[in-house]
Amino acid sequence: MTRLSALKSALLATCALLPTAAFAQQTLQTIEVVGVSPVQGSEIAKDKIPSNVETIGARELDHSRAPTLLDGILQSVPGVSLSDQTGNAFQRDLNYRGQTASPVLGTPQGIAVYQNGTRINEAFGDVVNWDLIPEMAIARMTLMPNNPLFGLNATGGALSIEMKNGFNYQGGEAQLFGGSFGRIQSGAQYGWNNGTYSTYIAAEGAYDRGWRDYSSASQIRRMYADFGARGDNTEFHLSFTGADNKLGSVAATPIEMLNQRWSSVYTWPQSLRLQMQMVQASMKWAPTDTLSIQANGYYRNYKSARIDGNGTEVAACDPAGAFPGEFCLSDAAGTEFQMNRNGPTVNTLAGDAALGQIDRNTVKTDSYGGSLQATSTTQLFGHDNHFVVGASVDHGNTNFQATSELGTIDNNLFVTGLGVYVDQPNAGLAPVNLNAKNTYLGVYATNTFDITSQLALTAGGRFNWAQINLRDQTGFAPLLNSNNNFQRFNPVVGLTYKITPDMTAYAGYSEANRAPTPLELGCSDPANPCLIDNFLIADPPLKQVVSRTVEGGLRGEISGGRSAYAADLPAYRKAPIKSVAVDDGWRLRWGLSLFRTENSDDIIQVVDPANPVRGYFKNAGTTLRQGVEAKLDLAWNRWTAYANYTFIDATFRSAFDVNDPFLGAPVGVVSGNHIPGIPAHRLKLGAEYAVTDAWKVGASVNYVGSQYLLHDETNVYPKVPAYWVVNVNTSYQVTKNVEVFGLIQNLFNQRYYSAGTVFDPAGFNTAGGGTAFALNDPRSMVPGMPLAAYAGIRAKF
User: What is the pairing mode between strands 354-376 and 291-311?
Assistant: First the structure.
């Protein structure tokens, strides 16, 4: 883009901000643009998006309001809730419209996540590791439902993360905060440009010892750097993201133990090491004012290493059997086998010693790929038109290894390894060494045509092709070897209608799909159940999941008094124009949407009836997630406030059998049973008041309704109770460049459960053939964090 055309664009943007006769008072309309594809450069006015798209910026992720990235998303995005499977604040699940983006292997992943146009759902398991994202370097996040252009896993929506660079962030900042449970966190960022070249760098570190008994401390180290260059009509960026994190994990604990001690844990050690390096390159070329070409490429290296203390299937051999005085495993028919196929493992332990095992697994992935996209805003038949076409390829090469070491469990439920490893293929437990290769191709296009100045039609789609090849590297698990191919074209169509300058109606229909992950494919045989994410055994075919979404709603803005707005419109690209202040006036933004998503061939995790510590994945027919989203955002003089509510009715629509972990027997799911782990009601309220120009105070309330326990597909167990949490925050601008802040999470120290599951409370095998630590209640819960207080300081330079 030439400087003359850049000036022309800036003048046009300024004109768009001028008041018109349609406004009764001196009120200016804000304009916000969002990307319609993962690659930056496809932005269009938000009012022309036929879905309930949500955006948040760096301010909403500020640590003066929320201690982690996920807490910031929870507080700022309607419809989002958090659940917890790991007991670690850095590794929680993000739930949206009944779909999940989770760091836990084996969790069905229904949200696609992108960083600067690169898909960061990991190749093995499609998991999303939130702790690997340098949150200080985030410029903006967009949550986009009802859009298949974001490729695989966008069955529930897509989250696109745009990072900072030296062109959109200048200056420097450092911050330090800490508080409860040994938390201390620091970060610094700096951005610079001279109009042609730019640099940006951010680094963060954190330590948190955790609040649960025996929980391992978490250590976070991550960074982001970007180098940019631009000319009259071109722009180039080269960036690096790196992280090296150690995370403690304590997971769910039987409710009987939590009733005695809120911070208790059930078997440990549990820890995770994550390492990641990613290099990205992106380019934009705008040969004309109405045509731009975007391209990006990446290389990502990812490693994870998990240690998990658990119970074990290993037991003392039958004294009257073939292997007296040894340790044995049994197959589904009850036949005993020596624990180790290479020979006897003599049982010299005391008869009352409780047996456990330390499960270890490692994932090492090299992935690379890129996208090429073109965006045209050339008018069609004299009407505004926005056309985007593109293609992407992603390839991942993963090595997955898993072992289990026999151990003993002490009175604190700590598992101590004995130096001998479980290795019995006849009983379905043996070391795993698997190579998985993923190749994902996508071709997409979308067009938004202004039928009139008020009515816009969007139509498009994406073709996805996925190839997943698995190869056993041990030579002892040939059932794992397979070649899997999935393909599908997913359409999208929608309308937006501007009823008034301040109110827009929208409606849309879309389809999306996700392919089974290598983990799901490697553990999908009911006749050969496996230890989820540790022992992969067999690979019968699974069908891909296909979602069909219908959505409609209204959104708008009303205001009064005198408003002041600032336009953020860099000449080198289109970007959001956002209001930054309201002076002697008020502004109310609101939205109401209805949605209905039907998934066919949904994949769920089922436990083995003979041994609940094992399980497998299966297609469970049709599932339905439908509901309502409503939101209000108010700015009035010194006040800002928000309120949003989400209702989700998530049900199975097909009859099928699952296995109850407590009963150890198959049970029948019928149409209308609710999907576990999805709260029906979510309500968020918050407000902030500027006591003086320098001092602000705020508070928020988060209410989450009750939900069924995981593995309770028949809805027979008591639900995880509803809960509410109050958080407060304050900040004080000491000088122009120095700010101090404080926040309290869970102000009233509520005791609540963030998630729960059904488990077998029968206890652990002993070396003498009995059981130890048996319980009665089959409910196992993840307790919510108690009251926590943090304080910090931020300096800009």
Answer: antiparallel
Beta strand ranges found along 515-638 (DSSP E) = 545-564, 581-600, 603-607, 615-619, 623-636
Residue that has been written with the tokens 């708008």 in this structure:
556
Phi first, then psi: what are they for 732, rounded to 5°? Answer: -140, 125
Reported for 416-419, long-range contacts at CB under 8 A and 24+ positions apart, including other chains, are 417/358
Q: How far apart are CA 102 and CA 755, in angstroms?
A: 13
Query: Taking Cα atoms as reference points, which of 114, 121, 634 lies closest to residue 367?
Result: 121
DSSP state of 317: P
Three-class DSSP category at 20:
coil
Tokens for 375?
């965006």
Residues 735-752 have pLDDT tens digits of 999 999 999 999 999 999
Burial class, 352, CB count within 10 angstroms (exposed 0-12 / middle 13-18 / buried 19+): exposed
Q: How many CB atoms lie within 10 A of CB 55?
A: 21
Cis upstream peptide for 661 (omega within 30°): no
- Using CA atoms, how far apart are residues 29 and 502, in angstroms rounded to an integer? 8
Statement: the pTM of the whole predicted model exceeds 0.85: yes
**DSSP strand pairing (336-338 vs 327-330):** antiparallel
Please say whether the beta carbons of 495 and 523 come within 8 A: no
* Local structure of 13: helix, strand or coil: helix
How far is the C-alpha of 458 from the C-alpha of 446, rounded, in Å? 7
Contact 115, 241 (CB under 8 A): yes
Cis omega (within 30 of 0) for bond into 269: yes
Please name which of 537, 569, 453 lies closest in space to residue 500, comparing C-alpha atoms. 453
What is the four-CA torsion angle of 756, 758, 759, 761, rounded to 10 degrees?
Answer: 100
Local structure of residue 4 (DSSP, 8 states): H
H/E segment holding residue 10: helix 3-16
Please give the structure tokens belonging to residue 451: 């039928």
The alpha carbon of 280 is separated from its chain's Cα centroid by a whole number of angstroms, namely 21
φ/ψ bin of 18: left (φ > 0), alpha (ψ from -120 to 50), beta (otherwise): beta
Q: What is the mean pLDDT of residues 403-421?
A: 96
Instruction: Enter the tokens of residue 397.
Output: 């090469």
Identify the CA nearest to 783 among candidates 187, 115, 86. Answer: 86
Average pLDDT, the chain: 90
**Which pLDDT value is given to residue 251?**
82
Q: Please name which of 619, 618, 658, 430 lies closest in space to residue 537, comparing C-alpha atoms.
A: 430
**Residue 517 burial (CB count, 10 A):** 29
> Does the structure show a pLDDT above 50 at 15?
no
pLDDT bin (cut points 50, 70, 90) of residue 535 is low
Question: Is residue 769 scored above 90 in pLDDT?
Answer: yes
Provide the CA 682 distance to its chain's centre, in angstroms. Answer: 18
CA 471/CA 460 separation, integer angstroms: 37
What's the pLDDT tens digit per position in 647-692?
999 999 999 999 899 988 899 999 999 999 999 999 999 999 999 9
CA angle 738-742-745, nearest 5°? 155
The rounded distance, in Å, linking the Cα atoms of 200 and 170 is: 8
Backbone φ and ψ of 172, nearest 5° = -135, 155
Rounded Cα–Cα distance for residues 732 and 746 (Å): 22
695, containing H or E segment: strand 695-704
pLDDT score of 611: 73
pLDDT tens per residue across span 233-244: 999 999 999 999
Residue (of 615, 494, 617, 493) closest to 545 by Cα position? 617
User: 696: which residues sit within 8 A by CB, 6+ positions away?
Assistant: 688, 689, 690, 730, 731, 732
